[in-house]
Structure of Alpha-rhamnosidase:
Amino acid sequence: MKKQNKLFFLIIFICTIYVHGLFAQNTNNNATWIWYPGDYEIWLNNEMQARRTERGAFFPPLWRYYSPYSLVTFTKDFNLAKPDVVNIKVEGQAKVQLDGQMYYGALENMEIPSGKHTITIKVYNQKGVPTLFVEGNNLVSDSSWLVTYEDKEWIDESGLASGVSGTEWEQVGSWNFNSVTALPSEYKLETTPWYVQNQETYKNGFVADFGKETFGYIKLHGLKGVGSVTVYYGESMEEAKSEQFCETLDRVQVTENTDSEYVIESSKAFRYVNVQTEGEVKLDSVSMLYEYLPLDYKGSFKCSDEQLNKIWDVSAYTMHLTTREFFIDGIKRDRWVWSGDAYQSYLMNYYLFFDNPSVKRTMYALRGKEPVNTHINTIMDYSLYWFLGVYDYYKFSGDKEFVKQIYPRMKTLMDFCLKRRNTNGMMEGLTGDWVFIDWADGLSKQGEVSFEQLLLARSLETMALCAKINEDIENEKFYKTEAGTLKKKIFEQFWSKDKGAFLHNSVHDTTEDKVTRYTNMFAIFFNYLSEEKKEAVKTNVLLNDNVQQITTPYMRFYELEALCQLGEQKYVLNEIRNYWGGMLQLGATSFWEKYDPNEKGEKQLAMYGRPYGKSLCHAWGASPVYLFGKYYLGVQPLTPGYETYKIEPVLGGLQWMEGTVPTPYGNISIYTTTKEIKVSAKGGIGTLLFKSVRKPSVTNGTIEKIGHQQYQLTIQPNTNYRIKYKAVE
Amino acid sequence: MKKQNKLFFLIIFICTIYVHGLFAQNTNNNATWIWYPGDYEIWLNNEMQARRTERGAFFPPLWRYYSPYSLVTFTKDFNLAKPDVVNIKVEGQAKVQLDGQMYYGALENMEIPSGKHTITIKVYNQKGVPTLFVEGNNLVSDSSWLVTYEDKEWIDESGLASGVSGTEWEQVGSWNFNSVTALPSEYKLETTPWYVQNQETYKNGFVADFGKETFGYIKLHGLKGVGSVTVYYGESMEEAKSEQFCETLDRVQVTENTDSEYVIESSKAFRYVNVQTEGEVKLDSVSMLYEYLPLDYKGSFKCSDEQLNKIWDVSAYTMHLTTREFFIDGIKRDRWVWSGDAYQSYLMNYYLFFDNPSVKRTMYALRGKEPVNTHINTIMDYSLYWFLGVYDYYKFSGDKEFVKQIYPRMKTLMDFCLKRRNTNGMMEGLTGDWVFIDWADGLSKQGEVSFEQLLLARSLETMALCAKINEDIENEKFYKTEAGTLKKKIFEQFWSKDKGAFLHNSVHDTTEDKVTRYTNMFAIFFNYLSEEKKEAVKTNVLLNDNVQQITTPYMRFYELEALCQLGEQKYVLNEIRNYWGGMLQLGATSFWEKYDPNEKGEKQLAMYGRPYGKSLCHAWGASPVYLFGKYYLGVQPLTPGYETYKIEPVLGGLQWMEGTVPTPYGNISIYTTTKEIKVSAKGGIGTLLFKSVRKPSVTNGTIEKIGHQQYQLTIQPNTNYRIKYKAVE
């Protein structure tokens, strides 16, 4: 290379820096609306949950609502290489201070000279959530800003240290409101038109079938005349036709001023609508605006069994319908955020959408604020699932920032729980507590229920983990000790050598001689059992028909997970075929709140003493998306955020299967037959584990033998692996 | 009487019952809007305090804001002799249940059959406060309803006791929104027109004088053309003319569409306005809408000294200007609710308006909700004054209902305070605390300040009293013990035998050798001192010019009160003449935040480093209304609510005085010369105490001699007493 060329490259290099500098100055497009963490989520959840109606009547949740702070202060230290001009926009009213000085000018085009600065913006909004959007060439509102609801500004003239009371400044909350016009208060899910598949005349109107379970706004077409139109919604045809007992309905008063096309204000869940008119009014037809949260289906699953493929598809659709502003239970009736239900949605989400914001929104919404004086959703187990949700979120996402942000609220909820323990150190249902566990006939909730203690032990372990992340050494030790003590006590008090299983509960210092599935199956995937005890539980409880059967998809979720952990994938596939396949045979287009194969006809639609009370699209019905991803494709993180992970594909009797599992790095792809495994991943270090009756070979890397017929292979990112092997039958 | 007549009377009697029954059915006009106690007050206070502006810029409080609950449940058990038709109106959305059954009908004309019922109405409103108005012939919303923000409805299917978690149902809050159209969310103070007394051309516009300090909305008259009109407000002419430094201003953009008469949106405090135009715009004149809380001036005072009469009048007006949605500090600048300032307003209110709702509103607004993690207004003394406010409110009003309603919030605030004590059991300023005491040069706030401990002792005594009213025996004992221990320690640590006074503070276990007035004067009216110590304090502190002088009307309030309690009414009258008379001589039409007779000219207007920073209408400037009522007319309750009270008129050198002091029963009227005392009262049992050099006589009742030249007379309600005597000079 000649000298001249060197100079030329140097010039290019300098120009590049300059251009890059300009770029940084002028195209900082990452401004986003920010708020006090959790407050927008709480507000939005209050609004969403209050959209439940029952036969036209307003039906908000029974549990307490929390409120956003109406006055908060945002702040940011920053350094400008050159002067900046910023636009400040708030929802509410703003007081701006630059370097401690009150700013009296307009919020548009505020000029800030170069150099080091601190900007402080107080926002007041008592009608909603105080939110802030700042957009300059350099200074923009983003997750690096801090916020407080306390006073950290007042200068104490006495000379005492001022400002910092109570808590530290906190990191702001944000989501995806990335333009000044995308006001958080005006957030709406997206909609798209959807048309009727079949319409037939019925009484004074018609019944329309949208082809499958859906959710959205009914649109009336060709309205003429004056009178009223009533829309009776049905997840089943029977429900839509039952004007007396359908769970939801809307009535529209049509006047001379009503447009011929009219969209009903509130969205509903249905497959069928029964449209009836009164008076002189007429209409031609209906369509709907399907309402949904835009999400990528990152996870996927296909296999040699078409029924299972259909089950996965319907599960994924069920999961999408119930993944809305938050993870809700069911779309027809409650439309509320229940911690136990949401906990399963988190898990399914990791194998389908891997949408962290949905998990975080839901966790904030459920937890609420201070002081804690009631269990989440009033249910003891639901407070405890909430901790488990943090554990899993960290495991799958590796998001330490969130763990830090939520940790203070974890501590206060745990304080609440620990204060409610009895003298034996166990949590019993106190006045006002609901001990739920499951919808199951004759299930005792009395006294010390072993299941609740098990959840508490796991919650305490979660606290220890999160205390460590927060460098809260003292509490880490405390939670560890408490978890250890409790686990020991659970085994002493509830493990029956006779039965080879955990007993259900103790009342008045006497442990009842009854076994249920709950504690036993959770102990398996909490990994609390020795191999010997695991086998005992499998035989004596999980595969024992004399132990009370589970009839909700909710607890089937865990039961099947426990069996998968015990290597019973083949058995579980059959269970899935029977149980979820059973719903499909009855015409399900989304999965249900409860399914009892023994119930016949319209009885399948009834629940809570109401003929159509049962929800036919319930998040907890969607567990196959989780089971297929985790226990058949066999992918799960080994260290937080998939930094390391394992892939342990199990065909469970299938001829082949293929699919993807999302991770923070991108998807892991797997294809398996009994002779071949193909794997690739976008990041992290994976370990592929598989069994082969003959020595396997691979295109890349080195297969290691780790036991009898057991092999492993390290999976590096962005490499296609193709393994030849012969599956163990 | 003939038999016939008896029958006639019987018929009349029956008819009367019937008519009375009808009356009761049809004219139940006592329905009022109800809400969760304190929530409306918190909401309204958030709104009011956010109306502060500084030179056009939004300036909300520095301290934390609390939020109302957005979802609350109201309930009422009732019994109908015959069917009722009720109208239910809410601010928000409502879910109605009658006897546990969901009601699907319209909220207008809901039919309720006769018999025993429970109605439960859940109201959701996240934009403001969920409020409820129910109006039937019998069933109406009033203070007998109960409310909760928790879940007390959920039926636990497990059979566990359901519903009652955390707290009991609470009594609802209400004020005076007594018609369905008087929506709490639309509350506004009243207004009345007020005209300019003098207007003179100034620069590009004019300066107008409204004759005295006032508060309201400026109205522009005869607007023509296009341009901007700027209104510079001034409590003084100097401030109005200082376009650069006046504290408040408003700018109106006048377009072709602007009406010729235009009312500025936000109300301000001023006596003068400087109206300047830019562009082609012109206007003729301004007037204003005076904005006020409608209140009766129940207390009154007149005497032989015209200057004192003027002082009383200006004090009363100052008090009225600062008694608004809440008791605020000053009308020009802060317009905020400060606990220490409000505490004095409560006391003045008892001798002027006796408006209990204003006290209760302010107490709720200041206290906020749970959890407590900062002092009220961030000031340690201001948390403690809040307790004293409850003490006095109960003493003057006798309102046990309020004490019961607020007691849970008293406990949590006291918990917060007690947890912040040091190992010596005393409260020192911790990080984030502001130890205020007074605006005074060089006043130490370091370490254990004796004044703060004294307030804490009194607060603990208040807690014991309120615990007793709430039948909380255990805590009554606890608070009593804590109060006793602390009082003992205060005397041991701070009382100096040498100085015959309390010392100011201890830093690092060493009590500083400095005396200030604060602890000493409060110890007097808390009645903590022996007669001997009282005399010592009077000589060594209160009448000792070497002890740092007080320059705020705020602490003058207490200093003069202490002197009055020591019988120094004559001395105090001269102090009032000099201090408040000094302000009048400088042209005050309302009393100031601070007055230092040594300051000259415009310096009197400056504060906080700003030339017009000082508030010229500050509640704490109005103390003469309190002192005249309590220590000259001499009236105060002996038992709560004036059930018993004393009148101890002291002329303090005046030839005569007359006046009224309000009580829950009505006014007590007093007229006194050196020879004659006239007294009458509407209720309660009074004791008139007076001194006479000769044996007095009275028109009614019997005068009792109780000491050398000392007499007493029992005052029965609704009786005019006229005593002949000869005053002791």
